[in-house]
Amino acid sequence: MTKTTIYLRQNVAKQFGDDLGDYRQTLEKFINSPNQRGLNLEKLHTRNNSQPLYSIRHNSKSRLVLCPLKTERDSQAWVVTAVLENHEYNRLRGIAALSEEEKEAPEAVEGESVSEAAEGESVSAADKNHTVNFVLSDKIEFINQQFILLDDDQQALKLVSLPLIISGAPGSGKTSSLLAIVKHNIQQWSNSEESPRILIIAKSARLVEQMRKEWLAMCKEDFQDMKIDPNWVTFQTPEEIYKANHPSDDVVFRGEQEFIKWYQEFAKKQNNLLKKQILPVTDDMAVLVYQELHTMSGYTSVDTYKSQVGNKFSLFDDKTIREELWKVYEAYQATLQKDHAVDVAFEQIELRQTYNCIGVDETQDLSRRQQRSIVQGKNGDQKNIVFCVGDHQRLFGSETTVPYIETLFREKENNNNNNSGHTVVTHRALHASYRCAEPIIRFANAILRLKYHATGGWRMADGGLAIKMNYPLSKVIPTKVLMAMCYG
Predict the structure, then answer these.
(1) In this structure, are residues 101 and 61 in contact, taking their beta carbons and an 8 Å threshold?
(2) What is the model's pTM?
């Protein structure tokens, strides 16, 4: 039996109003026999051809716009994206009716993401065993210029109390979930006399700009009839926040490349003084030193750093080197101060306004000091914080991010003498990935298994996050191949 689900978004259901029954009849005709003349089926051009859109005639005055969604096998899913009057539709379509070659029935697609091209079977003619379900749902989000059906894990995040840590595999929807959480709560935050303020932080300027564009697209799609200002949400990098806090300063910013040049000169001098080659000086090792300093920045003393990081999580397993690197960390700080320069990785993210919510994407890219300042900064009573963490999406790093963030919240709770015994921060993992084809996901899981083995266990790797797959590992890569990868 073939099952088709037609999802109605809240704004569309409002447009249907008391005429839901009439619209339902039109949609059932489309599912059972899409090519019948009265529906005047048309395929619309979409930007970058990222997601197919189809239009059908409802009556002489209006048309319905639909798109297919990825869903399970032996089932089809569609979302009604708009009800358009004819004059509105003519502006949207941008094309003439389907050509003879295009008059094939639109394709139904499988899976829960709509980021890939339609791959399923065509919507066929009437089927006696075909069932159609109509679902009013808030699980459909307009993200990355596409309508996406959130999976159960992603949808559940909207209702989780904050603060919250979201971790997951690449392509599991962490950024999308962050924006969906903001969208879900912004009406509640806007009920006060003052306009709400929400801040989203990411290290990458490119990611910040991408999220800003996605947020504006979400607002345009979902908030047309609501008094919600997209500018209530601000997207910034740590560097932009620093510049905004110091508008009159002529700041010289430094980063990894400047550090490497400084460090190699410093290391050679130190090695000469010690008459030992303790500090590594190659370019590759200098990069690792810079990453280790990111970790050091989260601790107030060398003793605390040594006790909480140690051999397991440091990029350097030699205790003597780690002690010397702490001296490098202090010398680099002193050099920045002497030169009136700033490396934002070693500055607190100082928030001078109160925000209804703070979101941090790609948290693993921030230094430990930056992470600490967000949790334990001047806005000490800030509870509405969402951290998105993807520790598998970086080449370097020592201690895994999720346990460190959890530790920061516990410290904050203890410092406030508010040790209630309750969980102070919630951690939710997204296990499915919708970015890659299934063979790639299978191979990635095998690599993650090797990573867990090398790092000493699943807890050290953010709770053993594996990308959701449908087959056991033995079917992904043969045992002999795995052994060869492990032992050469």
Answers:
(1) no
(2) 0.79
CA-based Rg of the chain, rounded to a whole angstrom? 27
Say how far apart CA 147 and CA 157 lie, in whole Å.
Answer: 18
Are the beta carbons of 262 and 351 closer than 8 angstroms?
no
Which position has the token pair 């619209």?
Answer: 23
Ordered by where they begin, the domains of the chain are 3-99+131-149 (3.30.2310.20), 152-248+347-430 (3.40.50.300), 252-339 (no CATH), 436-472 (no CATH)
Q: Yes or no: say if 145 and 48 are a contact pair by the CB < 8 Å rule.
A: yes
Asked whether the beta carbons of 69 and 54 are under 8 A apart, the reply is: no
Collapse the DSSP code of 283 into the 3-class scheme (helix H, G, I; strand E, B; otherwise coil) and give the result: helix
Amino acid 283 reads D
List pLDDT tens digits, range 430-468.
877 666 666 777 777 777 677 666 655 444 444 444 555
C-alpha to C-alpha distance for 26 and 417, rounded to whole angstroms: 62
Write out the two tokens for 12: 């569309």
Break the chain down into helix, strand, coil percent, rounded to 5: 45, 15, 40
pLDDT digits (tens, 9 = 90+) for 362-381: 999 999 999 999 998 776 56
Instruction: Answer yes or no: are the C-beta atoms of 3 and 75 closer than 8 Å.
Output: yes
Tell me which residue of 377, 367, 372 sits closest to 332, measured CA to CA: 367
Coil, strand or helix at 274: helix
Partners of residue 253 on adjacent β-strands: 342
Q: How far apart are CA 268 and CA 288, in angstroms?
A: 16
Contact 201, 349 (CB under 8 A): yes
Are 381 and 354 within 8 A, CB to CB? no
CB 359 within 8 A of CB 374: no
Q: Report d(CA 23, CA 3) in Å as an integer.
A: 19
